[in-house]
Amino acid sequence: MAKIEIKNLTKKFGEAVLAVKNISLTIEDGQFFCLLGPSGCGKSTTLRMIAGLEEISEGEIWLDNELINHVPPKDRNMSMVFEGFALYPHLSVYDNIAFPLRIRKLPANEVDDRVRSVLKIINLEPFAHRKPNQLSDGQKQRVSLGRALVRQPRVYLFDEPISHLEAKLRELLREEIASLQRKLGVTTVYVTHDQYEALTMADKIAVMDNGDIKQVGSPKELYSRPSNVFVAGFVGEFPMNLLKGSIHTAGDNIRLIGPSLSLSLDQKTLAQLEKKGCRGEVIVGIRPEHLAVCDHQIDVNYIRAQVMAVEPYGDCSVIFAETRDHVVQAITEFEAQVKQKSICFELDMTKVHFFNSKSGESVEEEHG
Amino acid sequence: MAEVILRNVCKNFGKTVILKNLSFECPDGECLCLLGPSGTGKSMTIKLVAGIEPLTSGQIFIGNRLVNKLEPRERNVAVTFQSFALYSHMSVFDNLAFPLRAPIRTQRFAPVEIKTRVKEVAGLLGIGELLQRYPAQLSGGQRQRVALGRMMIRRPSVFLMDEPIAHLDAKFRHYMRGKLKEVQQELGITTIYATPDQLEALTMASRIAVLNWGGKIEQIGSPFDLVNDPKNKFVASLVGDPSINILAGEIFSENGKLTIQSGNFSLHLPGIISKKIANKKYTNKVEIGIRPNHISINKNGVGGEAGFKGEVLLFEYAGRYAIILVKVGEDVMLKIKTDNPDQRFATGDKVDLFFDFNRLFLFNPRTGERLL
User: Fold this and answer.
1) Model confidence over A203-252: pLDDT tens digits?
2) Average pLDDT for residues B72-94, to the nearest whole number?
3) Which single residue of A108, A241, B147, B162 could bond B84 by disulfide (Cβ 3.0 to 4.6 Å)?
């Protein structure tokens, strides 16, 4: 059992710098939990406070029923994997992995058993006697993973463990770490700036910006129901298209009109917008895959734009098109020929999001 | 006019061969990407064209001029490397103006001319408001644009870029890629761009040269050529994300129909494919290549005609799509990319898979050449 509870956690560097601002989180036992955000958002600082490598300015961290604010790092029974591999160059793979057990003075036969079973898990049995400089980067990162596993800790902490590796290797290790975590079921906190890693690996994600938590939810919740424009723009391979418009009503005819867009709204949506304090201006959000190139004339639910570029992505292409106040991205077929300069996109109205233009908050009701 | 032509370029360090007989042409205004794993000589090629490294043999032409013996500064090229270093004690204006003022320049620029050019470049990159600031007062994105501007200011006839955005974080890499492409196309400057990242190559390049060890060009073509019509297994595996599934198998004929056996799972090829293969020379042993987005997946029993059976190992939700790792038979693993991420699969789910046979590739397992 290892449930982590973070209550009103704050980190100050000196008087002026607030790196983490009064955040609260619950990480359930066995969960793969991601802290996601741009650099400088406070995610690594939060992780380091959980590990005990950084002092807590205010607030509490609980591990199960124990307050661990003042427990030294070595007594927290957590293993951390860093971005750099931090291997001992003069020790073999075997000895690198055995190291944390030997300094704890475990009996030799137990050390051997545990190291061998870890070598099997990380698929490095044939390389046990190699030195780190005889290994590829991927293998090195697996050794540092093995060194974290061998201690059989209650919690794994990862700080951008694969973000500096090349794309193909990143893909491989991402899957290995995710599968391993599912298999072992050990509570894991994983820090990354890469939304793709977070979506594909995590059970739950906390999106951070500027020391604050912007949203906590499952990958699907963050992607399909972002609670503010920051999350909408940050989560997703492509940022959500965010365009400004204003509400015009004439009887039953409710329109949301912007410089290059026009949507038809129903009474229910209007009521919801008004309830959330949107009068006049609204931000409309639509993901690139929910825009369809329209070859016939439509007079509602459209965005008109000028094509700037079409980028092939391997299994789809992305159209970049300029509206009067924005660059819109839309997904289309890989082989699609976009010859025209003026283009019209039809919006999938079931997938449209609305945000308050002042606060940036979603107008949708919160769930759960 | 600045076409870049390499003819039989070789580079050795002592007995170590880095590049062997590398030849390609990059027409004026085109963006040619050199794509390959690390160690295939991409960076070396950039350095040779820039004149930073001498070549062992061969010829390099820039705009019809043989440049083998020319100093880097005489070649009229601008180079960027992984890190865009700025002078921290100089304002944005002075950073941008630096290449025009540098004492090694043969041409001297009047202050008025410098000012005009700085303004022009800053306007193009949207940093016109920042000219009086210092690098420390800029965001990462703004700094990158200053660095890019410094490269453009001399109006070089060729841009040479060696993984210019590899170290940036994911979101920002996406943004800068767009910006680089926009500038390259707007200015129409011939560009050679080295990267190990297939996505960067696909999105940036007019044409891509896929490099293998020793700078051997495996294929040169448009992004579409490389994805839809790869010449061999090396190219097929390098281009596409996630990577193409490659299965070792054997082809044999059963009641006049061709069947591929891979491990203990077998695949009956539709008649049309059988006919295509029948006319080709092939060994019994083949490798099958199928891209993750050309396999569809259904829960067992759902969906019409029977596909072949598998068991889900890992389901990865990615927002716009999902990636599913499926075990087929004992030791065969397939990766599937579906654009319906809301259809969830759990580890252990029994599933049916269907191949899009029109998209199937077959490779010669010995040479890697494509048979189909």
Assistant:
1) 999 999 999 999 999 999 999 999 999 999 999 989 999 999 999 988 88
2) 86
3) B147
Q: Pick from A38, A199, A314: which is nearest to B227 by CB?
A: A314
Tokens of B126: 């949207």
Q: Is A226 on the interface with B (CB under 8 A)?
A: no
Count of C-beta atoms within a 10 Å radius of residue B285: 12
Closest to A330 measured CA to CA, from A302, A360, A363, A366: A302
Residue B202: C-alpha distances to residues A175, B51, B105 (Å): 24, 27, 36
pLDDT at B32: 97
DSSP assignments along A79-95, one per residue: EEE-SS----TTS-HHH
CA distance A99 to chain B (A): 32
Please give the Cα distance from A190 to A102 (Å, whole number). Answer: 27
Task: Using alpha carbons, select from B353, B202, B210 the residue that is nearest to residue A334.
Answer: B202
Say whether A199 and B319 touch across the interface (CB within 8 A): yes
| Number of other CB atoms surrounding residue A252 within 10 Å | 7
Which chain A residues touch B196 with a CB distance below 8 Å? 166-167
Cα–Cα distance list, A282 to A257, A260, A298, A356, B192 (Å) = 9, 14, 22, 6, 44
A287 has a chain B CB within 8 A of its CB? yes
User: Domains in chain A: how many in total?
Assistant: 2
Q: Percentage helix, strand, coil, to 5, in chain A?
A: 30, 35, 35
Please determine, for residue A364, whether its predicted confidence score (pLDDT) is greater than 90: no
Look up the CATH number of the domain holding residue A87. 3.40.50.300
Dist CA A319 CA A303 (whole Å): 13
- Report d(CA B353, CA B307) in Å as an integer: 5
Please work out, in degrees rounded to the nearest 5, the angle formed at the alpha carbon of residue A78 by the alpha carbons of A76 and A83.
135
Across the interface, whether the CB atoms of A314 and B38 are under 8 A apart is answered no
Residue A143 domain boundaries: 4-234
Contact B54, B44 (CB under 8 A): no
Domain end residue (candidates: B238, B263, B287) = B238
From the CB of residue B82, how many other CB atoms can be counted at a distance below 10 Å?
A: 13
Cβ neighbours of residue B202 under 8 Å, at least 6 residues apart?
A311, A312, A313, A314, B208, B223, B226, B227, B239
> pLDDT of B130-151, one tens digit each?
999 998 888 777 787 888 888 8
> Are A220 and A270 in a shared domain?
no
d(CA B154, CA B162): 19
Q: Which of A235, A318, A334 sits opposite B319 (nearest CB)?
A: A235
Helix axes A108-121 and A137-149, enclosed angle (nearest 10): 130
Contact A234, A35 (CB under 8 A): no
A–B: how many Cβ contacts below 8 A?
A: 104
What is the pLDDT confidence band of residue B202, given thresholds at 50, 70 and 90?
very high
Contacts of residue B367, defined as CB under 8 A and 6 or more positions apart, other chains included, come to B232
pLDDT in tens, A312-359: 988 899 999 999 888 999 999 988 888 888 999 999 999 999 999 999
Indicate the residue of B38, B228, B319 with minimum beta-carbon distance to A223: B319
